[in-house]
Amino acid sequence: MASWARPRQIAVYGALVIAVLSAAAVGAGTLSGTSHDAAASVAAAKPLPTVESDVLSDNAAKSREREQRRAEYDALMERLRTGDSADVPEELVSAPPADAPALPGFDGRPIDCRKLRCVALTFDDGPGADTGRLLGMLRAANAIATWFPLGAVTLDSPERLRAIAGAGMEIGNHSWSHPQLTILSDRGIDSQIRRTAREVETVTGKKPYLVRPPYGAISRRVTRDLGRLAAPCILWDVDPLDWKYLNSDYVYRSVMRQVRPGSIVLMHDIHPTTVAAVPRILKALAARGYTFVTVSELFAGKLQPGHVYTDNHGAYRGPQTSRKD
Ligand code: NI
């Protein structure tokens, strides 16, 4: 919480600097006036016309706002360097739904993950500078994935999220500013999720319903709040710790070692090392017979609000027999 005091401080200093600069400008005008004729002196001493003052204070306000947004964004990026780590209370994880109805808003392909080796790749914390390149890689492999963007990042670069939606990818909700939801109030959780959902809907025209809590941090209270927000809680079973090991080889090997039919793979497209690993991951998974699906498709849209999902391993029955993979 203390870190949020900083942007406000910066804004106050900014206002002070502007006030001092304005005073200096008036002083300089008066001085230059006295060294010439009287008319010039009077003109220099005159206050600026109202319209110009308004423009100046408007510009100052805009630049303060920009400065504040930049400071908030930098603070957010700093916190993201600590990455996500799953600390999931087992008792909160739900069994994949059997006969539940598909969620309203589900418009995925009718893919049968009982027969196909499905895998859902997911990208958190972005979109980032390499997201466009990543979309090209997915397109080249005819693959689909799910994004869990941050509201604050989306506000900063809406065109990137628009490109993700335009490429037919699924888009969820990873909160506004990546706080640990378990230490927020119910109102705080509500605001983080709703504000992001509104932003994503404004940019893409579609309201996201899947929520991935930052750090995978959940509690009974968080899942109850997500239930009230009609949001299924999506975690993961494959974590290559790509934010920690900024190494493409490591990310590739780690994903391939952990993946099973029905897996949800956690990655972060804000790291160039992760994006660089994706073509190899796509190629190797396709060679092992995997079908790339969105998170919703992995569950045929039958997800329940307030329930927690890490994978759908149970769905896969094998090609012909009930052989376990
Ligand atoms: Ni995250």
Listing every helix as H and every strand as E from the N terminus to the C terminus, the arrangement reads HHHEHEHHEHHEHEHEHE
Shape: globular
Unreliable parts:
1-43
Bound molecules: nickel (II) ion
Strand content: 5-15%
Average of per-residue pLDDT values: 83
Largest sheet: 5 strands, parallel
Number of strands: 7
Q: Kindly provide the radius of gyration, computed on alpha-carbon positions and rounded to a whole number of angstroms.
A: 25 Å
Q: What class would the helix/strand composition place it in? A: alpha/beta
Percent of residues in helices comes to 40-55%
Number of DSSP helical runs: 11
- CA-CA gap between termini: 46 Å
Give the topology, please.
Elements: H1 5-34, H2 38-45, H3 50-80, E1 117-124, H4 131-140, E2 146-148, H5 151-156, H6 158-166, E3 170-171, H7 186-204, H8 220-228, E4 233-234, H9 248-258, E5 263-268, H10 272-287, E6 290-292, H11 295-298, E7 308-309
Parallel strand pairs: 1-2, 1-5, 1-6, 2-3, 4-7
Helix pairs in contact: 1-2, 1-3, 4-10, 9-10
Nickel (II) ion binds at residues 84, 124-125, 174, 178, 214.
Question: Could you walk me through the main structural features you see in this protein, from its secondary elements to its overall organization?
Answer:
With 325 residues, this protein is α/β, with parallel strands linked by helices. It has eleven helices and seven strands. The chain has helices spanning 5-34, 38-45, 50-80, 131-140, 151-156, 158-166, 186-204, 220-228, 248-258, 272-287, 295-298, and strands spanning 117-124, 146-148, 170-171, 233-234, 263-268, 290-292, 308-309. The strands form two sheets. Strands 1, 2, 3, 5 and 6 form a five-stranded parallel beta sheet that branches. A two-stranded parallel sheet has the order 4-7. β1, α4 and β2 form a beta-alpha-beta unit. The site of nickel (II) ion has 6 residues, from loops.
